[in-house]
Write a sequence for this structure.
């Protein structure tokens, strides 16, 4: 399959299997889809080729995945869920860092290691996304932002109020480094992973600085009043 410059804006969604037999078949399709992507890449992927490898009629696959992008989207959603589970599993390692900057670095490097260990995840998540894949990506960025806020709160830090989700946007900035690394090297390199961590830390540090400064400005007048009373 020749990959288009951008995926369709609104491809038909994947049909969710209702029976166990159908779920098992969908799982088999996705496992073989990963194997095909590993061998041929996104450009070499097609549903006819997938059906031939599985020995399934094409109609069986089209029933659940009308287009190749619905396959990619389902794989992306599954890998994003797996990544979140890995981060939750390693949370004690992450929060054991000496300060929030190193804590953030560990978070980012753990995510980078997941992509390194799962090249299909890099292909379907860091490459072009369908609309449903993009929604899954944004949902993950939001949840990672919540994770980041919780990390900061545990250290008594807060982010300045904003019209946007500061923590989620920071995660998005860091992930952009992963995407650039994938397009240049077909993997997330250590240098790009470190750069992603640096971007997140720099952005959040400015917002934390503003928040702390505002808190100080609120406290100072009360201090002056107290001195006048004395």
């Amino acid at each position: 399959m020749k990959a288009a410059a951008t995926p369709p804006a609104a491809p038909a969604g994947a049909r969710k299997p209702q029976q166990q037999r159908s779920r098992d078949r969908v799982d088999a399709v996705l496992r073989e889809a990963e194997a095909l992507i590993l061998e041929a890449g996104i450009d070499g992927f097609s549903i006819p080729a997938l059906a031939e490898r599985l020995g399934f009629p094409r109609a069986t696959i089209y029933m659940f995945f009308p287009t190749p992008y619905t396959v990619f989207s389902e794989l992306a959603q599954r890998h994003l869920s797996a990544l979140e589970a890995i981060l939750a599993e390693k949370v004690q390692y992450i929060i054991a860092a000496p300060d929030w900057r190193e804590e953030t670095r560990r978070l980012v490097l753990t995510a980078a290691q997941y992509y390194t260990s799962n090249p299909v995840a890099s292909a379907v998540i860091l490459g072009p996304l369908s609309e449903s894949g993009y929604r899954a990506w944004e949902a993950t960025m939001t949840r990672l932002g919540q994770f980041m806020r919780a990390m900061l709160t545990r250290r008594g830090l807060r982010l300045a109020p904003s019209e946007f989700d500061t923590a989620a946007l920071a995660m998005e900035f860091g992930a952009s480094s992963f995407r650039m690394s994938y397009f240049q090297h077909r993997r997330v390199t250590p240098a790009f992973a470190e750069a992603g961590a640096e971007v997140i830390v720099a952005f959040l540090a400015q917002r934390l600085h503003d928040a702390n400064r505002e808190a100080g400005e609120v406290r100072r007048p009360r201090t002056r009043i107290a001195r006048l009373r004395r």
